[in-house]
## 1
Amino acid sequence: MIWVLGELRGSSIAPSTFEALYAGRILSKGLKTGLNLVFVGHDIKIQPEAILKKADKIYLLEHELLNVYTSSACGAAVERFLADKDAAAIITPASLFGRDAAPALAVPLDMACIANVSSLDARDGIILVKRPLYGGKIIETLSLKGRAVISVMPRAFKAAEDMDYDGEIISVDASLGETDCPVSVKETVKEGGARDITEADILVSGGRGMENAENFSLLKELADALGGQVAASRAAVDAGWAPPSIQVGQTGRTVAPKLYVACAISGAPQHLAGIRGAKYVIAINKDPDAPICKEADLCMTGNVFEIIPALIKEIKAAALR
Amino acid sequence: MADRFDCIIVGAGPAGCAAAYKLASDGMSVIVFERGEYPGSKNMSGGILYSTILNKLIPEFWKEAPVERHVTRRRYSMLSKDSEAALDVNINAFSEPPYNNSFTVLRAKFDRWFAKKAEDAGALIVTEAVVDGFITDNEKITGVKVRMEGGEVLAGAVILADGANSLLSEKAGLREKPAAKEMILGVKEIISLPKEVIEDRFSLEGGQGAALEFFGQCLGGFAGQGFIYTNADCLSVGIGCPISVLQENGLKPAGLIEAFKKHPSVRNLLRGGRIEEYGAHMIPEGGFSAMPELTKDGLILCGDAGGLVNPSLYKEGSNLAMASGVFAAETVIEAKKRGDFSKAALDAYVEKLENSFVLKDMKRFKDAPEILRKAPELFKEYPEELLELLRLHFTVSEASKDEVHGELRRSFKGKVPAWRLLKNLWKLRRIIS
Amino acid sequence: MDIIVCIKRIPDTAAKVEIDAGGLEIKKDVPWVMNPYDEFAVEEALRIKEKFGGKVTLLHAGAEGGEEVLKKGLAMGADEAVYIKDRSLAALDSMAFAKVLSAVIKTKPFDVILCGRMGMDTASGLLGGALAALLKIPCVPAIKKLTIFPQKTALAAREIEGGMETVQCPLPALFTAHKGLNEPRYPSLSGIMRSKKQEIKYITPASLGIMPDVADLKRTALSYPTSSRKSAILKGDASAQAKEAIKFLRDEVKII
Ligand SMILES: Cc1cc2nc3c(=O)[nH]c(=O)nc-3n(C[C@H](O)[C@H](O)[C@H](O)COP(=O)(O)OP(=O)(O)OC[C@H]3O[C@@H](n4cnc5c(N)ncnc54)[C@H](O)[C@@H]3O)c2cc1C
Ligand SMILES: Cc1cc2nc3c(=O)[nH]c(=O)nc-3n(C[C@H](O)[C@H](O)[C@H](O)COP(=O)(O)OP(=O)(O)OC[C@H]3O[C@@H](n4cnc5c(N)ncnc54)[C@H](O)[C@@H]3O)c2cc1C
Ligand SMILES: Nc1ncnc2c1ncn2[C@@H]1O[C@H](COP(=O)(O)O)[C@@H](O)[C@H]1O
């Protein structure tokens, strides 16, 4: 059996779950076994129609102590749940949640664990995975004999669409005690509004050349015109013009939008590491020799403060036509 | 209390590493400060390492050092605007150890290796450490100040091996800011190509390497030269141009190397390659007459910091740097024995340089920079004429050979004043050999 | 407080990494550095020690060359460095490393274990969680702030999806350091000189009675990513460029 550990965002299912399901399906086909999905939480309310045709069984593993996620409680709950079940592999999204949960499952279940996988295959009982190494400069292929917990890179897999599964939702009480959650959450602060940039289709990202925080509103304007979100380079985040949660790159998020517009970003290797998965890249830079231009499909050269307004104007004009 | 060493070395380039290796091997306590993240991280050179000195210091070093190729092929070519005439020398005997003591290297790797050797020999190498100034006692240099917490260190002697742009030798009062005409700006790119392509394109086999030097119209008519050296699976491609020429003509370094790479003869050698790195660095090419005073109480200047670059066609800097490093180390060892680090004692260093190829060669080629400066024709008119003559000579037509030669003579006389050509050629021999 | 810091050695993130002739390894002659997140971990450990007294022990497991990163940690001010060195520790499997490290840690007293949030080589971020699970102690990943209380509890602020959360846990516990936790110090000159004299303690996995088994997980290939970017460069007037870009957005990206 292949198990997918789903991620919840409040009462809805996080998009990363569907990508993990897609990856899970590859394995379930390759290993000729079933596909189950499990969510962990308390009082879980999900829309069944979103999921019923995507897996054989959907378990809701519930307990008061799972109201707020902690790796120890989640790990203990899932491990006990799966201990007497057959599990050839467990797939999780490589989000903060999934990366954290994966080793907490792998250790007690005595499975191998591979993080941040960008492609998967399975044949003859062997799982083949690819993952980027060294900020995406090298791709590694691993062959895996035996059971493993695998977290899959955001947007490396398509979102699973409905198939001919005849799913069933089963609610289970998790067996947990106070000792299973030594870590207690005291306070949670949400950062205003912004959606997770790893889930965006279009990103307009700004770097040091944006000069100050106010100029980021220009990026917002462009992002709005394109129907996307704003992101930033580390230089811009370090300068305090943008929150760390929207930093793209090796120490920030790995993004794979359909379109990435890099505005006044030079394209340092650590930044490029975060955008290798983008389908299209447009760079706007005054320096045509900036490394980003070689990593872009289209490089617009000149001052961002002239090019972006011109671009916004043309996009609006095109939208009217 | 500041720590105390027998010797402090500033800079972990070839000069500093050679000095450190020698001193540490002789049991001296020595500390090296290098401002780069690691030795070599800030160093770029065209990449031919002449290694007679290194081979004495670490016999058969090529067996362990990260050398790229040994140079068996040298090619000197004269470029006109769109044509080329070349002398190509291929000596297979250079494929035998010691490989004619000329290897292509990538300095980022080589310097790191050399510094590690010095470290293994007992030298203390501190990276990410910028030396800002000196500690003095009555004009005598007794230590250095390093830009880090607790960064004051004392020593019997300080060896300055901080390279061409040695701010410290200016601080020590040994030289002024070098004149623009005495400095060449080297601009270099690393261009990657598969190993097989390099070996095919440059007719090499095994670990053989080629060094191609370009003269004449390399930089669109401005004074300067170009080079291509083959590494294992990339090329070092670069140019050198006097800073004064850049300033007077408002030229940009990046534009110059582009001009060189666009020449048809060059372009074809680089085809399909990908630029991996780009960098620019100063080369002191003032020659013998621009050299600063090399010693002071408690202080010795080595390598590029001392202006020790042979300004001839050989463009030899690394070997002189290492030789001077070894001589400086020997001098400090002797000074320590006598307990005398005064200028008079350290002048033994200058004597060693005088008695070796270092200053002999520096003197032999002392006029080279001036000759090149005074003959701008070398970079434009002469190459154009030479190739025009060759073109006429090789053009296939129905004119009789007599007619062609007559035409050649006339065209030659008309354009190049013969006496000046002869004078220049006579002078040029002082650059070449 | 007894504080243990696990440090990883990675190729400098700015370096060019190349596959060697055999095709299964990278060329080793790149500059290697301490994993940047681990610098935050070392710094935090030193701060805890400065506040409460105690000892900072560095652990590194690997096949070769780990001395340099351990020396850097010592130069920053750590008290002891342990190097679990063995040829078998060459693969990049965080789980295998976690097993080896946990075996060593079990032989030592500890109140706090610090790791980096993830290694910049594999971007796994597995080891901390696995180590905590093996030692059966709490794990708080990706922390940006840590306060230790003398009665052996800790309060940590960590990044979560879309915000921050503050959690409490008893010690001993494991934390993985995120950027922002602190500003790692540069080693002082006296620190560097002291570190050159400090001995590194070597341990082999065999002496711990473990045989790291990586047979289940095997690298079968390394390759370079293929980029199909066209790198078309537009020049000149902003509005003319914008018109070209619109064509691109319409005809290729197909979002207009
Ligand atoms: C261990 C490590 C991890 C790192 N992780 C990350 C990471 O996750 N993400 C990240 O982004 N960086 C990361 N970095 C930093 C990275 O190396 C670069 O320093 C950073 O990406 C540079 O940001 P930038 O491109 O915005 O700024 P710069 O490199 O300064 O580039 C600014 C660019 O803007 C252009 N420009 C300036 N003004 C204008 C104008 N008016 N109009 C048009 N163009 C203009 C310039 O030509 C230049 O190309 C990391 C570094 C290290 C060492
Ligand atoms: C483009 C180019 C091509 C060349 N081609 C050749 C060639 O083919 N063959 C050849 O033999 N020579 C060549 N040279 C010359 C050769 O590179 C130099 O002569 C040689 O590197 C000199 O060695 P060095 O040790 O004196 O100085 P460098 O190699 O310059 O080393 C100086 C070191 O000191 C460090 N440093 C500087 N200031 C400080 C400070 N304040 N504190 C701490 N550290 C400091 C620097 O980071 C550097 O590592 C070339 C040079 C260039 C630029
Ligand atoms: N070989 C190792 N030796 C010691 N610590 C390690 C090793 N590998 C990883 N770590 C630690 O675990 C963290 C996460 O690494 P990783 O799981 O490889 O992403 C690193 O930041 C280090 O703190």
Note: The first strand of chain B starts at residue 3 and ends at 10.
## 2
Amino acid sequence: MPSIAWVPLFILWFGIFETSKIVLIAVGVFFPIYLGVMGAILSVDRKTVEVGRSFRLSPFALVRRILLPSILPAYVLSLRGGLGLGWMFVVAAEFMGASEGLGYLLVDGQQLGKPQQIVAAILVFAVLGKLSDWLLETLTAPLLTWQDAFTTAN
Amino acid sequence: MLEIDNISKVYANGVTALRNVTLSVAQGEVVAIVGGSGCGKSTLLRLISGLDRVSSGSIRIEGAAVTSPHPAIGIIFQEPRLLPWLNVAENVAFGLANLTKPERRHRVHEVLKRVGLRDYNARWPRELSGGQSQRVAIARARNAALRAAFG
């Protein structure tokens, strides 16, 4: 179900201030990331899990020492996708009933005929999006140096 | 030490991999299982190692039925199966979680020296050749088995 459909309900429940926007972004981002993580878990190599079993790891240790490291690259990728999606929901949330913020500037620029304001807001979104993605990538890179993969990132 | 009594293994897809296999191996004995492709060699080893369960019959190690991987048995797979997110030393130490750090480091050093990979501690699995990877896997399995032997 499209997350933006929740907006009127969230505004009713959580008011027109920050809470409803944060809930919208959280709900909108949760499921794509959840799907990504589930997909990664389902594709964890049986052979790797057997290595864990051969050392008699407990189910908890199996998750911590085999499953989580195995899915880490896919998880990071999901998070990056979710981050981009999160920015989209910021715009969507601010389109509806915000009195400040970049999304509000977009609407305001349209209603008052100020294209330069719209373009400026778009540019700021672009910079923020790039910056947050770069930050996430930089923070997670040390955890992924072991990867033996054809690098597509950058 | 190892008693295999009339075991059979039928996989979920209906394939009968082993039928009525009986075998016993004494302490210190070296046994090679030889046969054509798909004749059940790996199945037999998987059953002995406790990764799979027998369909009928029983496997005993020192009198105890095998139902899950046994602490006295180190498993070396056909392909190395190193954990790619751990370096060589961490892979070798994988089964040594309950040792102290210095003990672990010492054990890893010893066992890597024995397989001829003395200065490879910090390498990633992806940086090893096929043979080197398998030697690390042997070191890892030996290590676990040694731990069992020394309690």
Note: DSSP finds six helices and no strands in chain A.
## 3
Amino acid sequence: MPVQIRVPTPLRRFTGGADVVTAEGSSLREVLDDLERKHPGLRERLLDENGELRRFVNIYINGDDVRFLDNLSSKVKDGDDISIVPAIAGGR
Amino acid sequence: MAKTSKNIIDEARSTIPELSVEEARKMIEASQAVVIDVRESDEWRQGHLPQAIPIPRGFLELRIEEKVPDRKRPIILHCASGLRSLLAARALREMGYENVYNMAGGFNAWKNAGLPWVAERQFTQEEITRYSRHFLIPEVGEKGQAKLLDSKVLLVGAGALGSPSGLYLAAAGVGTIGIVDFDVVDLSNLQRQIIHTTDRVGMLKTESAQKSINAINPGVKVIRHDVRLTSENVMQVIADYDVIINCSDNFPTRYLVNDACVFARKPLVDGAIFQFEGNATVFYPAKGGPCYRCLYPEPPPPGMAPSCAEAGVLGVLPGLIGSIQALEAIKLILGAGKPLIGWMVYFNTLGDRDFVRILRLRRDPKCPVCGDHPTQTELIDYEAFCAGVNFGANGSSQPAHT
């Protein structure tokens, strides 16, 4: 089931510059696995060595933070909109 | 026979019941009566009963039905001394209002009895013209403008985000603007830091920002904080401000300001930018919203999140985000609309359909700073925290990826 993933600028070098990519899976974990197959290197920027979501990156499914859903086990369905939003510090 | 003013007053006294200020107070407190102040608007502005509705004598018959549709409802009229309102009461009687009272002695007697009253801010002629477009907006008006003029906002950083934010807050008439920055204006700043000018290269940013702010609005009081914010000075710096705007450019300052605002129970208007992307939100745990730590419990390891100095930023982008920060600060001051507490507005300005997104942010009950059982109750060493030095359970620092 294809979902859209919105990739923030700092991670677009893993997606050939694309700001929106698609991947498949029925849970967020499966989507990220598929994403890694298509865009190697991306998953490591999102997950730590224990396979948990890094604490300075948030992922939103249809605008809702997955940490307050089911984390990586959160269900995704066809057409869902996934946003990756890392902490950015810029202001000057 | 022609009547004298004394005749008219005597006649009115014989038909209109009068209340002492104490009797009026009791009726007002029991919500039994509506109070109409028939004085002119300049008299009203100098002070009035908190519950009163202003309708100048000349407009009374024209506006009373809109304000008091129920003709049986008790109405207490008053003016300054009780005479104009006494005569005005007859007109309401004629219109069929059955329970009209005059408050004897008027506002002066009320005030002299030590009863509560409030004063509207006195605007100068210059202010009336300057803020005339604000006066027209129901959410601002004279009351809102008075709130803005009485408010104190702190800008943490006079750079890309602080520039538009500071300029708009100054123009809007935020009465006191504090600016924290220890840097000087550099030529490379001017592509985006629009509060500074070419002839001020080398000048302290706080001084340059003060000049621009006062050039737009000389009525704004600027307080310069030419310091680097630290755990030692931050609580004192933010203490006097109503709203803090985070315009900083590094993680240690972002965590420092966040924690300080949580401890001081102050709203923090956050904004961040990266090339063509940016976001803004309001952190306000005291109102049930999340803080920066709820969002990002830990900063990225050094090298994993390049700064603007390393990655660049489009000049216009901070104009967009900084303006939203000014807007949110103004909403908070006015109490207008719904501030972005628990919501992040996220811009991908290279996009079309996803140019802007709204993301739901939630307070984390396990947050170490604003959670239900906080484990960190004082400020820490934020340079060390952001360098990945172990802080108990949080310290899962990662190798840098570049």
Note: The longest strand of chain B covers residues 268-274.
## 4
Amino acid sequence: MHHRLRTLAPILAALLIPFVCHTAAAQKPGGVLKAYNPDSPGGMSIMEEATVVAAGPMMGVFNNLIMFDQHVPQNSLRSIVPDLATQWSWNGDGTALTFTLRQGVKFHDGKPFTSRDVKCSMDLQMGTGPEKLRLNPRQSSWYNIAAVTTNGDWEVTFQLKSPQPAFPMFLAGAFAAIYPCHVPPTQMRQHPIGTGPFKFVEYRMNESIKLTRNLDYWKPGRPYLDGIEYTIIKDTSTATLGFISGKFDMTFPYLLTIPSFNDIKSQVPNAICELDSGEGINRHLLVNYHKPPFDNPQLRRAMALSIDRQAFIDTIAQGQGEIGGVLQPPPGGLWGMPADEMKLLPGYGPAVDKNRAEGRQLMQQAGYGPGKTLDIKVTTRNLQGYRDAAVLLIDQLKHVYINATLDLAETPQYFPKILRKDFAVALNLQTSGPDPDPVLKLFYGCGSSLNWDGYCSPEVDKLIDEQSHEADPGRRKTLLWQIERKLAEDSARPIIFYPRGGTCRQPYVKGWAAMANSLFSGWRLEDVWLDK
Amino acid sequence: MAAYLVRRFGLMLLTLFGISVIIFLMLRVAPGNIADVLFDAAGFVDPAQKASLERDLGLDQPLVVQYASWIEALARGDLGHSYVTDRPAAAEILPRIPITATLAGLALSFAVLIGVPLGVLSAVRQNSLLDYVVRVVSLSGLSVPQFWLGLLVMMGFVAWFGTIPIFSAAQQDLAGTVTMYAVPAAIVGIPNSAFLMRLTRSSMLEVLRQDYIRTARAKGASESTVNFQHALRNAVLPLVTIIGLQAAILMGGLVVIETVFNIPGVARFLIDAVLWRDYPIVQNLVMYIAVIVVTTNFLVDMLYAALDPRIKYSD
């Protein structure tokens, strides 16, 4: 019987091939994908924008040199595929990365793409070219680039100051888009020109963002869609009802709250709804090291010990979230500690009462107690994602004799206030990747631009550099976990939790995959098609 | 009359000047500017980049210079450029005005067409069952929050018709356009009609007790002549004032309904512009609303004279 099956196998395989090929070729071109966008961005220049409401819709307008495979949920070095570069290679000491560029590619205005455009784009991002961006939020991410050099029209080399094996991860993210040299940054804000599968049509504040198919796209047969229309809807209930009524083919990826997610699932049972793994965005406690009495490490530790992380997940994310550290936990995160390891970090164990008892002891040593509470303000942004967690944090701080009140800051005031160090304690959000390099350096490195609380440890700085240079994934993970432990011991920005977000799409929307560890990298949409 | 008009016009200009100073100063007193908002989104502030941005936008200039250049440009009809989008402010503002004007006009029509007749009926049938029903309904209309009613109506549309009456810029058939505007307009119009109904009722009741109404009845005038020709014409004066004010307020006060029904009108745009600290948009939009309010008030005053022959504007 087995022998007969073995004989039949090649014949069966040969018979199945046409069906498999047929399935692969069954994507239907045409149709406009309709989705909503929860906010009106400031502009359309992906390099100048920091939020997903601009970066998401614009990713399809551009190409990168390399990109994350849009069908592999976890972004990693292994999931990087060619885009405008056809191949790439490191030099012997890992300090020069050379790309061979795709030929015959045109920008949406018909001008040819060459290595000069890559250099211009990097000069813009690094702030070293004659043209300047109005706002350059990721300039410090490129700290390790010594120079970008071209060799003819079809080769470009990134010279690094020191080896950085994870460097291709930055080039594969949505923000490392290739801009045309001949279009000034001001125009890119209003009418971006790229080489991507979709051409920009129009952006009307508070109304819509419209893209249309790039008929001259260099990738044969792509995109499948004739266009994409994002209607800007700020009211969550209206947006959810819009999807339920069938007005939209898709919700804005990753941003559905658990109640909206459940509502959609119950009202549109055939919708395809998925919860992501947290997208690497965590809620954490930010303590101002420069403001007495928070310069006392014992007091900061007591605050960290007061946190009941599972209560945050149960209350705010209705049980849909993960406990993690600075590194996003698996399975979504590449480098984070598994739950068993996390429990061993100070304050992360399940014995919350024991932790809080220890926290109270520390507070008593600092001179506080039931009769003398420490009165503070918890500053946060006046947005639901921040506010709800801050309210719960205030309740939990009471367990260690800290009596906190909520200090809400409107968007224009929030970061200026944090940057002026005009806060004692804040509830904040931060990303963990997809790669910890350079996130760790920016958030925890002594004196770096996003080190808002003023944490500084030469030991951690050394470990951050070591992990950045390390090519072996096993050894790198060991170093990263050392950093994670050290930061937890120092109560540096105690990470509270990673809430999950949801995405729903109508059953006829095919070819889209949710990313597990980045909010920003799954928006190319060139493989998405409508099975209508 | 001519001198009155000149004096009135002068007062209007003075009022607009006062408003321009107030809005200009209030925006500058409010903490943060466009540079803060942009850097906030990025989570960091580069002092050099921030200073360069402020210099480019003229925000480093003394307040007097900034005010003078705004007014000088405004006098030339130049509204400047939006700080956020870089597009001309006129191109951002003008397409939104017809949307809000249509919505406000429809809402006001709903309010007047429902509120005034019901108010008259309620007054002439005082303390009847109809009067009680109308009063209870109007009180409910006044008490229901617009955002709640809006969401409820939308949920009803989704559940019963499988569609959602939110704004769409796409070309629509007549039914689609009417639904798109009529539903939110009705939701705004209902509380306003309730208010007008109560005002009409009380005003009518006051007039109906006047001696000249009794005289009209004694002379054998029909009930409809008494109610509509004698009573309503006199009762309508306070209504004209309120309708005029409502028309002006609606041009800038439809924030909630524009948000719930996702209508890209003036009101929501103004709120967003304030949050972005987009001074050219806020200043010019507020001035536009101020012109509407001042002009409407002027027209209402003129209408008084037309409605009541006892009122005369003398030199």
Note: DSSP finds 16 helices and 20 strands in chain A.
